[in-house]
Amino acid sequence: MTPGATSGPASGQPEAGHPEPPRQGSQPEPGCDVPLLRLRGVSKSYGAVQANRGVDLTVMPGSIHAILGENGAGKSTLMKMIYGVEAPDAGQIEWNGAPVALTSPSEAGRLGIGMVFQHFSLFDTLTVLENVALVVPGSPRRLAARIATLGRDYGLQVDATEYVGALSVGERQRVEILRCLMQDPRLLILDEPTAVLPPQMVTRLFSTLRVLRDRGVSILFISHKLDEIRELCDAATVLRDGQVTGHADPRDTDTRSLTRMMIGRDLPPALPAEPGGAEGAVQLQLSQLDWTNPDPYAPDLRGIDLKLRGHEIVGIAGISGNGQSELCALISGETRLPTRAAGAIALRGQSVGAMGAAGRRALGLAYVPEERLGHGAVPEMTLWQNALLTAQSRGLTRRGMVDRRAALRFAQDCIAGFDVRTAGPEAEAGSLSGGNLQKFVVGREIMLAPSVLLVEQPTWGVDVAAAAEIRRRLIEMRNAGCAILVISEELDELFEICDRLHVLHDGRLSPSLVTARTTPEEVGEWMIGAGRPDAAPAGKGGGTGPARPGSSGTNADRPDTARPDSARPAPSHPDRSDPAAEGPGAGAASEGSDHAV
Amino acid sequence: MRFELIRRDRASLEMALMAPVLALLAAGLVSWALFAAMGVPAGRALWTIAATPFSTWYDFSEVLVKTAPLLLIAQGLAIGFRARVFNIGAEGQLLIGAICASAIPVLLPSAGSPLLWVAMMALGMVGGAAWAAIAAFWRTRLNANEILVTLMLSLIAAQILTYLLLGPWKDPMGMNFPQTRMFQPGALLPGLLPGTRVNLSLLFGVAATIAAYVFMQRSVTGFRLIVTGTAPRAAGYAGVSAARGVWLSLLISGAAAGLAGAAEVAGPLGQLQRSISQGYGFAAIIVAYLGGLHPVGIAVSSLVMSAIYIGGDNAMVFADLPQSAVLVVQGLLLTFYLIAATFVRYRIAWTGTARA
Amino acid sequence: MTHTRRAFLGTASAAGLAAALPLRASAQDALQIALMVPSPAADVGWSRTLLDGTEAAAGAVGGEVTFLESISEGPDADRIMQRAVSNGARFVILGSFGYMNGGLQLARRFPDVSILHASGYQTAPNFSPFAAKYYQGTYLMGMAAAALSTSGKIGSVSAFAIPELITSINAFVLGAQAVNPEIECSVVWVNSWFDPASEREAAQALISQGCDVLFSNAQDTPSVISVAEEAGVYAFNLNSPMKSYAPEKYLGVVGTDWAPFFTAQAQAHVDGSFEGANHYLGMEDEVVYVSDWTPDIPADIKTRIDQTQAEIVSGAFNPMTGPLTDQSGTVRVEDGVTMTRDEIQAMDWHVAGVTTPLPN
């Protein structure tokens, strides 16, 4: 049992009475042999990219069916075709045994297919009720009543009169699911629903999904997190490079075989995290950093204290939208503080709060931003020009003119040194795959030999092997004396490489947690704003911030934010000797060790 | 069959070179059909438009006369456009440049220095840059849209010109006609090719082309400007100041337009009058985009554009083509170019109708 | 020196072109006439009357017309008139004052070409400015306007504040004052010969100020006329009748018929007797006429108008006769004195009764 997650009084385990099934009379007979949904040989390509190739998929009634695959394996495209957003180039889709042509989402909706997108399709400036009324017909009074009933039945309580902009991400997800349920779906598609949730809320979502399944709704659950799938799903279809590589019952398939199906080989052996070297000098210090966000829906940063020394990697965990992008912009210099507050940020002993990005780079800061295209790199420019973007100081210019040869050489070194798969330094950055571009950007910033390296989502969208390589490089950098600050949503990753952790929640930073002596559960508590395991949030728990990392979406949960008490000592878990092996998934806490990377 | 546009992995160089050619061919074809339908001898009309600008030395010299201001202004504008700073008001900066340059011969009619024009050119550049600086100021201070500000400033510039011509600067011997006195010889740009109206302003255009090439393709500052335009967040990330880009773009394009205006009054006009520019400030926007915002491309497109103007005028003289038909040809050319330019970064993919 | 060289180049280029393009080879003997105007030739207006006159002249002398429309004043115009001459034109009519400098250069370069230039003031042996005495007609229109105006306010939408147009307005006001001494006139200068949008706006502004007779002064579009019709006020214009645009409220037209003048000049060119002179042409020359009178004019006023017209044609009366006071009240022309032709053609002041000051 994950601490606190579902124990609150308002967490709404669906136990009230005998709620009506979403669609009367449409419940399939148990053991019915006709699949609810069947795909035969479905293919789809975008230009040269074959997103799906000959995909077969069978979803039985009353099943929670996982679609498993790495980033870019073709999961989203497949779901878009099932939901009628895209038309397949070839193949057939059958619904209840009969072929159908899904030409639009409304057509899919009419058949009884609902979809909860990873990036929610709600209007911030409308209330929950108004957002529902945009899609579902009916008088506001009746809609409000149904929202209340369904919310009670399925553990999806939300205040129908609240503005969506004021809701937490968890609550928004509930609104999305509610909105789908109100259209009586037979099949509900959820695209990476746990990516935006802290561990505790994941448990609660799973309860809701099980109740739905028990009432005859089939669920397509898209994820790349094996533990979740093994906990929740009764069938799984694994995709790799757009093709089906296997069908399995995840309940009795071990993680290793699922992994092999997913990435085509065994995982590389984990690189042991060397203990931190001697305590280096403080390279980056944030002292009571306050910043008021011009975006009213995004969090302000309040009283942030952080010390980053040489020879260490410090991680900042937390759900995107809690101030991560704002913090990065403040550290990198893309956002400047007013001169009077400049002292809140010190880089190698110098107050730099009011200094621009170029000045801080000159002091030895390098930065890998989360968004590669358009932020860390210019997609329309070649790799050597992108090298020029931040590496000008590395002798790539001469008397105000670009030294093209030096830039080419630099880019070539980066490509070779970081195994970037590309045609060469003349290739446009936009033509590289996400993972390869990430390797290029990380490589470029590492080649700057910085004293302080700020890395946001270092392995986002990168394949497993490359991710391991990037992590290895970061540890090498640390061992060489660099001070590294990693901001990531992936708890596994932070536990693997970091010496210390902070958690950012609602613009406030938790006290420092020593990785070796904390647990994902404890970090999870900080992620939802609860300082102690016994102060778990109740009804309004859940995550915060917008779904899309880096966007200035909304944030909420301010009323019940538990203030971190910096005096509180980090709870000690001396038995956790191998934090890297710990999965973040709530339900995985007790069995996560086979998910090692 | 349906088709969709697929983004290419990288810009197609072949297509970039082919686009103007294809546009010329397509525009020629459609105009030919159009003229034929109108009952105009289509072949002769098109021949006149396409060939006469190059058929005699006089015509070609007139093409060069027209190329000079277009080239100068377009090179300036293109720098801003690549930084995504849209100076639409080059026409106004040209007028102010012309006015500032004219101040010397108008206010000092007896000044006899043979190099008056040097000071006039300098003053024209300063005037044009200052006029554009107004837009830069409001953009960087209040985030006011520079498209609107520069465009509105053009209207103001035209009113200032009208005021000066009807009032204080009116030629006292000119029977109330809205124009200044003719400038003294020292206030006129030296001719470049004897016997033609080609003057030094063509060299200004050539110099601007070389400078723009070095600046945009080679210099670090130019590289930064392009980054600001293509990926503003990446520019912030690399520590490039967006405000600096706005100032630089507007000052450069304003100075270029101002110089073009000064060269017009000191060149073919020889006086300040209402119709200084023949719409150069706006035509240069088209020239800049036709040239792919690349200095070399602009050198070609300004020549092509001037030739089409001259050819169109000739078609009126020789082929009895109405003025509007000439405008249609120019419009077709631009339309087809923009369509063709799409395929530099995109290609068409035919998709089957197969559906589940 | 430059001139001779340019002349040489011009001829050389013409020869080169003739070799390259066998254009108009059939018409070597016929007189090539080129007409250049700043606005497009609509069905009505200045460009149209010039084109009609030019074609009549061509018909009379057996010539051919090259029509160059919408040529903005400036370097383009200079080039195109040069091109037309290189292409064989020997009789050139320039339909705008802004073509003057280019036309004079052309005249110097090509002594065998005869040029007529509208509205200008410079003369050369083969370069003659010409203008119409619109004021004779606008005086008569003023008389009718005063009789029909109930507000006592009349207005004019005018192109440029050049003497020709100033005189037309002054005569319009003087004619109105002959019927109603208290009448006032407002003027909007749109600074364009051809700008339908500005003309509409200007006309609407005048109507909203209470003007109930409008004078479309040298505007080459029917905009003012049709705005007036919509608003139910009278309007008249110059050059060619526009009654079809205002069937109800068309006051009349001060028309011009250039056919007799152009024909005479073209014939003079053919005969070798063309001389540079300033031609100022009026009703007595059958160039200026008034027609399309509205039937709403009271009979007694109409009678007075007809009498005045007869006196103007016979020379017994000139509208520009003192006493004339300017807007500041200063007497500019003494009682009984008639302004000379040069004075009229250089008139740069408004008579009292015009409420709008001249732009300065």
Automatic annotation (TrEMBL), chain B:
It is found in: Cell membrane. GO terms for molecular function: transmembrane transporter activity. One of its GO terms (cellular component) is plasma membrane. CDD domains: TM_PBP1_transp_TpRbsC_like. Keywords: Cell membrane, Membrane, Transmembrane, Transmembrane helix. It comes from the Bacteria. Pfam families: BPD_transp_2 (PF02653). It is a multi-pass membrane protein. Its main location: membrane. The chain crosses the membrane at residues 21-43, 63-81, 93-111, 117-138, 147-166, 198-216, 246-267, 279-312, 324-346. Signal peptide: none annotated. This is ABC transporter permease.
UniProtKB/TrEMBL annotation, chain C:
Gene3D superfamilies: 3.40.50.2300. It comes from Mesobaculum littorinae. CDD domains: PBP1_BMP-like. The lineage of its organism: Bacteria, Pseudomonadati, Pseudomonadota, Alphaproteobacteria, Rhodobacterales. Residues 1-27 form the signal peptide. GO terms for cellular component: plasma membrane. The keyword Signal applies. Keywords: Signal. Residues 32-292 form the ABC transporter substrate-binding protein PnrA-like domain. This is BMP family ABC transporter substrate-binding protein.
